[in-house]
Specification:
The protein has ten helices and 13 strands. The protein has 314 residues and is α/β, with parallel strands linked by helices.
Length: 314
């Protein structure tokens, strides 16, 4: 039985098309100043003809290369997504085929909290000995479900993918994880397509979402540190879901963590839902900010509401 699930590789991918705030101001009543002040977002990437699987494949191959393993060595694939390419089969099985893996593969849907839910699930497989090498991917083509005439949501979201490879190890890896859900807030953030053939778009009560996100993520950060007998000073980096700079800043302030120890990519990526945390993680690993042995707090919250954290020694 493995003691820890350790991250041995990270990868990410962004589609090449850049859509700036000024670009959006030409199709909806908004401006760069309005978006920047309220969200911190300056630009986002949007797919043209790429699928959710296409994005996942590139991110996965980058993660496998860093990990130094072949897809054939994977024991499990978990793909977190809100925007699967088909109702079925699972996009994870499309990814499995594309990379030449030969292992179980399934999708997990928990919107913007999807990656931490998937990472926690993968950890359980490794800790019980049911798997040794697990690929966890967050991949989204969120632009598919955006009403581009609704400025309250059109300015927020982007597309992208991030991936990590976990391995069973005697070395310290994931130290603690905790997940929550509360279905009492379903209407605050949802896609209300009640029928399979009905096109639905993201609907959001912005002020309500903001308040809940700050409250739940701040409390969870404090609970996570307490459970691990750690102080914020012992955290090297917080890698949060990239939804809104004001949410990120409020949580950091609550736990007295300086913003120069918070990985922020929301200005360049927008909200990429389940992809946002692994995207930010990979960028900070590859640019040298995140180093081996450092303590990282990953946190995310999404519609449902569902939220969770993972504290990991990288």
């Amino acid at each position: 039985m493995n003691k820890f699930a350790r991250i041995i590789g990270t990868g990410s991918y962004l589609p090449p098309k850049v859509v700036t705030n000024d670009d959006l101001s030409k199709i909806v009543d908004t401006s760069d100043a309005w978006i920047s002040k309220r969200t911190g977002i300056k630009e986002r990437r949007i797919v043209t003809d790429e699928s959710t699987c296409d994005l996942a494949v590139v991110a996965t191959n980058n993660a496998l290369e860093m990990a130094g393993i072949d897809a054939s060595e994977l024991d499990l694939i978990i793909l977190a997504t809100t925007t699967p390419d088909k109702i079925f089969p699972a996009t994870a099985t499309m990814l499995q085929k594309a990379i030449g893996a030969n292992c179980p593969a399934f999708d997990l849907q928990s919107v913007c909290a999807g990656f931490v839910f998937a990472l926690t699930t993968a950890e359980q497989y490794i800790k019980t000995g049911a798997a040794d090498k697990v690929l966890v991917v967050g991949s989204e083509t969120f632009s598919r479900i955006i009403d581009w005439k609704d400025r309250s949501t059109a300015v927020l979201f982007g597309d992208g993918a991030g991936a990590v490879v976990l391995s069973g190890s005697e070395e310290t890896g994931i130290l603690h994880s905790k997940l929550f859900s509360d279905g009492n807030y379903l209407s605050s953030l949802q896609v209300s397509n009640n029928y399979i053939n009905e096109i639905g778009f993201v609907e959001m009560e912005g002020n309500e979402v903001f308040k809940i996100a700050v409250s739940r993520l701040s409390a969870l950060a404090e609970e996570t540190l307490k459970a691990c007998n750690m102080s914020a000073d012992e955290l090297d980096w917080m890698v949060p879901h990239q939804a809104n700079i004001r949410i990120i800043s409020a949580v950091a302030k609550r736990i007295k963590m300086p913003m120069d120890k918070v990985v922020v990519t929301v200005d360049k990526h927008g909200n990429t839902s389940a992809a946002s945390i692994p995207l930010a993680l990979d960028i900070a690993v590859r640019d040298g900010r995140i180093k081996k042995g450092q303590n990282l707090l990953l946190e995310g919250i999404g519609g449902g509401f569902s939220w969770g954290s993972v504290l990991v020694k990288y």
